[in-house]
Write a structure and sequence with these properties.
about 75% helix, 2 domains, 20 helices, mainly alpha, Growth Hormone, Chain: A
Length: about 500
């Protein structure tokens, strides 16, 4: 059997919830550095404060993917319970964020917000694969990308629009401006409403139907046997983590680099425990399943992992550093309490809305047209080069209006990053493990974010103190590396 072909209404309903989720991500990405600095953070500490977000995604997404593959709650379905739970918690975090009375409270709420957004987001990636047949995967992820872009435009423009409506955009030291406060509250309501639309207008296929849709390769797909795996590599991971921790202590590196050491050590321990569980006959344990699935990634997924790693390194650099870069170099102020800095923060919201708007249009028009002519991989490489050019232009442009052109290239890259890797991947994954593999794939979205959050502060302090413009050069370089890696794929 094959799944029925979805029309426009079906494609809309399947992905509309992502419109709300991306409003939440856009408010977070465009405003959290501003919130942290308004509450007293220095520019050198921003990366460390952002660590909570990617760390949460790293832990949450594979677990939620594994669980959602095995969930069935009758009429509520398989993925939709996670949409609903994540959206409710995200709305509560957005409600509380502007009320933060210190950096600790803001960082904890960022952790809660990112965890909740990931609980909703990861199953949405698998939901497209669940609901659509393989010949609709490109258009399915393109529609999802269009909603991501549209949601990000709305979320990014909230503070700018409120400022023009007369809402105060400057607050006393240690407080968040009302433009940001009201934006977070409105965004929480919009997020919850959009996810409810998808929950109420879609109906998932039952487990019996999904088994009927699965092809022979899907049915035969199994994870590698962990019981026969050597435990030596586990200790190698643990050792690398210990060596990094030692270097941090001896060379007085930034303390957040300890997190990178802890993650490597933690992976080695998790792998060791999973192998020991499998040898004890407990291979059905969730940890054993997830570790086995990481080891059993399909070849194309391994290739795409490097591309995701480099691409998302650039994006996370952008989200952390665009506000201080634009405020300092284009608006002439690095003081978060100044009107010029806050005006720069609002302009970043406009810039982010432009790249997301470009992405929404490019996903439905440019990407399918180009991919039909030169293939998905070459299309993705070309888009990544356009993004690298956009980031590179920050080094020479000083007129804030001209940055709108820079955002066009970044928007084209963003559209492709959100659509093409998933379109290439979804058709090659077994349906029964779509959720967990999408979660594992997103590890390679999160790892570069953690690397940027733990290492970028040390690099900037050591080589470019007080000169954050060079972060954009790093972003351009990593996108070029991603483009080169893409050329190895035949798709």
């Amino acid at each position: 059997m094959d799944k029925p072909k979805q029309g426009f209404a079906g494609l809309w309903n399947i992905s509309f919830g992502f419109f709300g989720i991306q409003i939440g991500f856009a408010l977070q990405n465009a405003n959290m550095s501003r919130v942290f600095q308004s509450l007293g953070s220095s520019i050198d500490d921003l990366s460390a404060l952002w660590v909570a977000a990617p760390l949460t995604g790293l832990l949450v997404q594979p677990i939620v993917g594994h669980l959602s593959d095995r969930t069935w709650l009758g009429r509520l379905g398989r993925r939709r319970p996670y949409f609903l739970a994540g959206a409710t918690l995200s709305a509560l975090a957005l409600l509380g964020m502007p009320q933060s009375d210190g950096l600790l409270m803001a960082a904890l709420l960022l952790w809660m917000l990112d965890a909740s957004l990931n609980i909703s987001m990861e199953p949405f990636r698998a939901f497209v694969g669940d609901m659509l047949r393989k010949d609709q995967h490109i258009i399915g992820y393109a529609v999802q990308t269009a909603f991501i872009g549209a949601g990000a435009v709305v979320g990014s423009l909230f503070p700018y629009m409120l400022d023009h409506l007369g809402v105060p955009n400057v607050a006393a030291a240690g407080q968040v401006p009302d433009t940001v406060r009201y934006s977070f509250w409105a965004g929480g309501a919009a997020l919850l409403a959009a996810v409810l639309w998808t929950v109420l207008t879609t109906r998932e296929y039952t487990p019996d139907q999904m088994r009927a849709f699965a092809d022979a390769d899907d049915a035969a797909a199994t994870a590698p046997d962990l019981a026969g795996r050597a435990i030596g590599p586990c200790f190698a991971w643990i050792g690398v983590g210990a060596v990094i921790a030692l270097f941090v202590a001896l060379w007085a590196m930034e303390k957040e680099v300890y997190l990178l050491a802890g993650l490597l050590t933690g992976y080695g321990l998790a792998r060791l425990i999973a192998i020991l569980l499998a040898r004890a006959g407990r291979s059905a344990h969730m940890l054993a399943h997830i570790v086995a699935d990481i080891g059993g990634m399909p070849p194309i997924m391994r290739q795409l992992a490097w591309i995701q790693f480099f691409s998302w390194s650039a994006l996370f650099i952008m989200w952390i550093h665009t506000t201080p870069v634009v405020a300092q170099y284009m608006f002439g102020s690095a003081d978060p309490a100044s009107a010029a800095y806050q005006a720069g923060g609002n302009w970043v919201g406009v810039l982010f809305s432009v790249y997301n708007g470009v992405a929404a249009v490019a996903a439905l028009t440019l990407l399918p047209w180009v991919a039909a002519r030169i293939g998905k991989a070459r299309t993705h490489a070309l888009c990544l080069v356009a993004g690298a050019a956009g980031f590179g232009s920050f080094l020479v442009v000083r007129d804030p209006d001209l940055l709108l052109l820079s955002e066009v290239g970044i928007g084209i890259a963003w559209a492709s990053i959100l659509a093409m890797p998933y379109a290439m991947l979804a058709s090659s994954l077994p349906q029964a493990k779509l959720g967990v593999y999408m979660g594992v794939f997103n590890i390679f979205v999160v790892l570069p974010q953690l690397l940027v959050a733990t290492a970028m502060g040390s690099i900037m302090k050591a080589f470019f103190p007080g000169d954050p413009i060079w972060t954009m050069a790093f972003a351009a370089a990593t996108l070029l590396l991603a483009a080169l890696a893409t050329l190895r794929i035949r798709a």
